[in-house]
Amino acid sequence: VQLVESGGGLVKPGESLRLSCVVSGLTLTQSTLSWARQAPGKGLEWLTTLYSDGTPSLKDSLMGRFEMFRNIAENTVYLRMNNLQPEDTAVYYCATGTAATLHNSVRGQGTQVTVSS
Question: How far apart are CA 26 and CA 30, in angstroms?
Fold first, then answer.
């Protein structure tokens, strides 16, 4: 299994980004995947999960700003992030499984998101 994230960068507060995670070795319709992030000096934080049937689960505090979706044909999952704020600065990871299994999951190398004016 291999997960490769991309799409991070430096943005200003209020701007948006879309992160991508190309998945190899898994079929999205048979797999549950999540996004997580790790801010400087903090632990790994679960953000959202997309179950194999396409049902999403999102951290309450991110409602209305973040959305996880997928392209089955491209075996890729995405994280759309709107109205980014400095506290969203972190390394963002795509991971197998759910919040419950996050710390034992397979993760990619991560992609850095920095929100700063």
Answer: 8
Amino acid 36 reads A
Kindly provide the residue ranges of all beta strands, DSSP E only, lying in the chain, ordered along the sequence: 2-6, 9-11, 17-24, 33-38, 44-50, 56-58, 66-71, 76-81, 90-96, 111-115
pLDDT in tens, 10-52: 999 999 999 999 999 999 999 999 999 999 999 999 999 999 9
Strand partners, 11: 115
**Kind of pairing, strands 2-6 and 17-24?**
antiparallel
User: 2-6 and 111-115: which strand pairing?
Assistant: unpaired
